[in-house]
């Protein structure tokens, strides 16, 4: 059922891109077929990732309580095993990657991702946190959800056995 919804969404984006190209060609006699095809390709290339990303967000956050692969907006998802074949956490999950991620709604207020020993603070917000903190600023959209994915390269034993605790993401007060 989920795959069918995905296929329908992709088909809808492709159909809209083709329809847009046809309408542009009809209304602009000087537009050549090659230009119409380029417009359709651009609509697909830039539109398809937005659709799949939003579908992943909806699938991952459509729960009231976090579990091993899902969490509400603003709560961490810690996948302690590799994604299953039918897991749709991302467009193409890596078979050798353990994922920890969170979808944040940064429309109302900024969030700060802090390392406990204060070695690093990342500011995830729409506006600059000030010149002294801009080096650690991750600009975020002004509204709607925002996905924060943490990837651990060369994981230690604590990451592999699930005892590592990722530092919390907290709202700035």
Helix and strand composition category? alpha+beta
DSSP strand count: 7
Strand order of the largest sheet: 5-4-3-7
- Listing every helix as H and every strand as E from the N terminus to the C terminus, the arrangement reads HHEEEEEEHE
Spans of at least 5 consecutive residues with low confidence: none
What proportion of the residues is helical, as a percent range? 25-40%
Q: What's the gyration radius in Å?
A: 20 Å
Mean of pLDDT: 75
Number of domains: 2
Task: Give the strand content.
Answer: 15-25%
Largest sheet: 4 strands, mixed
Number of helices: 3
Q: Could you give the distance between the termini?
A: 42 Å
Task: Report the principal-axis shape.
Answer: globular
Short description:
This protein is of the alpha+beta class and 173 residues long. It has 3 helices and 7 strands.
State the main characteristics.
173 residues; alpha+beta; four-stranded mixed β-sheet; three-stranded antiparallel β-sheet; 7 strands; 34% helix; globular
Description:
With 173 residues, the protein is α+β, with helices and mostly antiparallel strands. The protein has two domains: 2-61, no CATH class; 77-171, no CATH class. It is built from three helices and seven strands; from the N terminus they run ααββββββαβ. The chain has helices spanning 2-27, 33-61, 157-160; strands at residues 77-78, 100-105, 111-114, 121-125, 137-139, 145-150, 169-171. The chain has a four-stranded mixed β-sheet, with no helix packed on it. Strands 1-2-6 form a three-stranded antiparallel β-sheet, with no helix packed on it. A hairpin with a 6-residue loop joins strand 3 and strand 4. Helix 1 (2-27) runs antiparallel to helix 2 (33-61). The chain is globular and about 60 Å long. The N and C termini lie far apart (42 Å).
């Amino acid at each position: 059922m989920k795959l069918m919804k995905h296929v329908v969404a992709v088909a809808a984006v492709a159909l809209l891109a083709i329809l847009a190209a046809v309408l542009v060609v009809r209304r602009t006699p000087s537009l050549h077929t090659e230009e119409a095809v380029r417009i359709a390709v651009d609509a697909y290339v830039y539109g398809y990732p937005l659709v799949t990303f939003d579908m992943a967000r909806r699938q991952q956050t459509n729960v009231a309580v976090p579990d091993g692969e899902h969490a509400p907006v603003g709560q961490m998802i810690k996948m302690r095993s590799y994604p299953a074949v039918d897991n749709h956490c991302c467009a193409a999950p890596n078979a050798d990657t353990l994922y920890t991620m969170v979808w944040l709604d940064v429309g109302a207020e900024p969030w700060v991702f802090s390392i406990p020993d204060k070695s690093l603070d990342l500011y995830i917000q729409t506006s600059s946190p000030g010149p002294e903190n801009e080096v650690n600023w991750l600009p975020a959209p002004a509204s709607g959800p925002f996905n924060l994915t943490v990837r651990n390269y060369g994981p230690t034993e604590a990451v592999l056995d699930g005892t590592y605790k990722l530092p919390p993401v907290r709202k700035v007060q």
